[in-house]
Amino acid sequence: MRRRQSGCIVSLVMVLAGGLSAAHAGQVDAVATVNGWYASLLPGQDAQAMAARAGTLLAEGAVIDLRDLGITQTREEYLESLDVWADAVAGGTVAHRIEPGFDESSVSATVCFRFADNEVLNRETFAIEQGLIVNALFEQIADDCAGF
Length: 148
Hints:
Layout: H1 2-40, H2 47-55, E1 58-66, E2 71-74, H3 75-80, H4 82-89, E3 93-98, E4 106-114, E5 119-129, E6 132-142
Helix pairs in contact: 1-2, 2-4
């Protein structure tokens, strides 16, 4: 009887470890999605390249809430607006830091945008399903990147 219990415990530990690995893999995928998002928005790319990269990370029904600007956009509207973004970020920099407490379905980042004439610090939160962004909420938290 003891041998059978031991085998069950080993099996249970292996099942739990597999579940934890799957959860960790989901978290890593979510962070990779968000890191890819910021890579798609870096200066030095034209709007078409930005839209192509960002488009692969957005789900078909994705909603982008630019709360700091009072604008909510569909996936298509957001991708079409990247020509304005490409001009705005030219000569600037974008740096981000993933905030602690993320999981496979939600990742937040603190983002410093340094433009030619000003800086902005945002908190941006992404809802992710199956490796794609389904919702993004962008909120300005400071007028500069002091302390970033």
